[in-house]
Every structure is written in C-alpha cells, then in structure tokens.
Amino acid sequence: MDYQNYLTQIKQNNISAAVEAGCELFQDKGIDSVKMTEIARKAKIGIASLYRYFDTKEKLVIACAVKMWEEVIGEILPNYQSEEFASLNGFERIEHIFRVYRILCNKYKDFVKFVAVFDSYCLNNKVEPSKLADYEQIITTLYRFFSDAFDCGVQDGSIRQGIDKKQFYLTCNHALMAVVQKLVSGEILSQDNFAGFGEVDIMTDIFLSYIKA
Q1: Distance CA 172, CA 99 (A)
Q2: Rounded to whole angstroms, what are the CA distances from 49 to 4, 36, 169, 193?
Q3: Helix, strand, or coil here: 134?
Q4: Which residue segment(s) compose the domain that 33 sits in?
Q5: Burial class (CB in 10 A: 0-12, 13-18, 19+), 182
Q6: 150-154: long-range pairs with CB below 8 Å, 24+
Q7: Residues 110 and 206 in one domain
Q8: Is the pLDDT assigned to residue 190 strictly greater than 80?
Q9: Residue-wise pLDDT tens digits, 97-137
Q10: CA-to-CA distance for 54 and 63, rounded, in angstroms?
Q11: How many CA atoms lie within 13 A of 137 on its CB side?
Q12: For 190, what's the count of Cα atoms within 13 Å in the CB-facing half-sphere?
C-alpha cells in the first residue's frame, strides 16, 4: 500500500468511527445535547480531524441518519427478496410489507426514537431538502418494494383499482410511524395502555381493508 492509499484508508476509518460514535450518542442522548467534541472523543480522533470530515454538525447528523436507515433496511429487505415473498399475490405482499412496523416497534426502538428526534431537528434547524437527498434515497428503497407489490395486486385482482398508490403509501407510512413512535416512547396517561402491538395491528387492518378487492 503506497502512502496516498494509506492516508485514504486512515481517513475512511476515521469517518466510519465518527459516524459510528455519532449514531450511538445521538440514539442515547438525542441530537441537540451531543457536542462535536464528545463525538471526537468517543471516536478517538482529534476534533480538528472531525471538522475536516464534517465541517458542520448538521452534516454529521445526516450521515448518521443515513447509516442507521441503511442498517435497518439492510436487515429488513431479505424478507422481500425471498421465493416465499415472490409466490404471494399483491395484496399478501402488501400485508407482509406492513409487518415492518411491528419489527420496528419490537426490535429497533432506539432507531424509531431517533427518527422522531431527527425529524424535529430538521424542522427546527430548517435543513434544506437538497441536503437530505441521500437520506431520502435510502428511505425510498422500501417504497419501491411496496410499489411493485401494489402493481402486482392490481394486476392479479387482489387489490382494487382507482387508488392513488403514492398517496396511500405516504398516508400509511406517516400514520403507522406515528403510532410506532408513540408506542416506543412509553405511556404517559393511564388510559394509554400500550399492550403489545394492538394499535399497529388495528391500523394495519384498516389500511388493508381499504385496498382489498
């Protein structure tokens, strides 16, 4: 390995360490309370180096959000790439895809909490949509599987026609993510009674009933 490649490898390792440290700290403590010096210390790199890689905290926060989504989606996607999934009709595929919200609620609680904090951070800091291009691209990965399943259902007759596919997906995603975020955040009122996945299942059944042929 020549010297230039060595320096490139060092840089890549440091960037990975910074993002890993950021992911852990942001999930554990939120975004606003975490300082760049704390991230540098945890990543075991100098603060000057950290700012060379990420000249603003905003860029590091976005990079961490992208990495978290990549990891979660990387674990979920195999469920939609199996022969078993391919053998289902379109409606059954949508039903299968909706299980992701149960998975998020059960296995990725810290991630779900971070997404809510990240959304608030972007709104409060007026982060420009152009800066979120990579974040949006990784999120739309799930939509592509949903879209293919929906089209399959319309063609095989298991999903009724005349539905705005993109609007339906956004409605489902926004509503179900809001419920999941509420569930993982914990009960506030005595009437909340977050027992199991009841609210997720009820909402999922309502959406599925709307599209079933």
Answers
A1: 12
A2: 17, 11, 42, 48
A3: helix
A4: 1-55
A5: middle
A6: 150/90, 150/94, 150/211, 151/90, 152/89, 152/90, 152/93, 153/89, 153/90, 153/91, 153/93, 153/94, 153/211, 153/213, 154/90
A7: yes
A8: no
A9: 999 998 888 889 899 999 999 999 999 999 999 999 999 99
A10: 9
A11: 9
A12: 0
Tell me, what CATH number does 37's domain have? 1.10.10.60
CB 132 within 8 A of CB 121: no
Q: What is the CATH number of the domain that holds 146?
A: 1.10.357
Write out the two tokens for 53: 């890689």
Residue with tokens 């440290």: 21
Q: CB neighbours of 34 closer than 8 A, spacing ≥ 6?
A: 22, 25, 26
The number of distinct structural domains making up the chain is 2
Residues 6+ apart with CB under 8 A from 25: 34, 38, 39, 42
Whether 79 and 38 map to the same domain: the answer is no
Per-residue pLDDT tens digits for 32-69? 999 999 999 999 999 999 999 999 999 999 999 999 99
